[in-house]
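Work Package 4 report. The design task specified in the project plan requires that, given a folded chain encoded as structure tokens, an amino acid be chosen for each position. We show below one input record used in the internal validation round.
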């Protein structure tokens, strides 16, 4: 997965679970989660999408992984 795809997968995981994808997950697991959560969020007609804190968590993860 490229960086953009990985960020989007993490964003969807954040919306559903409230935290980023665990570092231990392999690419196949992340793609399966993305497909499942995309359908779940797409079907959410109540628009209960909460991305609060995602950008900060993503930036922190990127900074941690680059060190």
């Amino acid at each position: 997965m490229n960086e953009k795809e990985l960020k989007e997968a993490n964003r969807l995981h954040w919306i559903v679970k409230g935290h980023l994808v665990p570092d231990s997950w392999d690419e196949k697991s992340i793609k399966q989660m993305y497909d499942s959560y995309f359908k779940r969020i797409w079907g959410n007609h109540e628009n209960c999408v909460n991305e609060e804190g995602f950008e900060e968590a993503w930036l922190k993860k990127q900074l941690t992984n680059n060190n």
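The CA atoms of residues 21 and 55 lie 14 Å apart. Validation will be extended to a larger panel in the next phase.
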